[in-house]
């Protein structure tokens, strides 16, 4: 997940992602032209490193592999914070879900986290790949692996 808080740490994060990983490009606060220019730079690095890039937000980006949380072509991912949202996203055609917040997160201070047990119950039997989000790092991803997560996403874990 990208956002404006990352600053130049975005480039470090892209360099640390394992080949085959994905990037959800957000940067909602940028003006359209600036956002498109940054997306093009991210896409160039991603292609060189074998990363998939999906775009969040309404404005299509040239070269995107799909869309997060909206309508578009290619890979369709969606956020889910509870079972109802997860099922609705799958019915709407989501190929994968970002389920959050798995743990307390700086992005949403004070928001109630699911924790491992509620996370596991939420994703049970969904039938699509689930990516854990919210307070995630490699150690916490290991805690959730028994539930069958496909992977994990973060902002802070990649920029520390």
Chain-wise SSE layout:
Elements: H1 9-16, E1 22-25, H2 32-49, E2 52-56, E3 66-68, E4 75-80, H3 83-91, E5 96-99, H4 115-123, E6 130-132, H5 138-144, E7 151-152, H6 156-159
Report the strand count: 7
- The sequence of SSEs as H and E is HEHEEEHEHEHEH
**Fraction of residues in H or I helices:** 25-40%
Summing up helix and strand content along with how strands pair, one would put the structural category as: alpha/beta
Strand order within the widest beta sheet: 1-2-3-4-5-6-7
Strand content: 15-25%
Largest sheet: 7 strands, parallel
Please state the CA-atom Rg, rounded to the nearest Å: 15 Å
Average pLDDT confidence is 93
Poorly predicted regions are none
Overall 3D form: globular
Distance between the termini: 14 Å
Number of helical segments with 4 or more residues: 6
Spell out the key features of this protein.
160 residues, alpha/beta, 7-stranded parallel sheet, 34% helix, globular
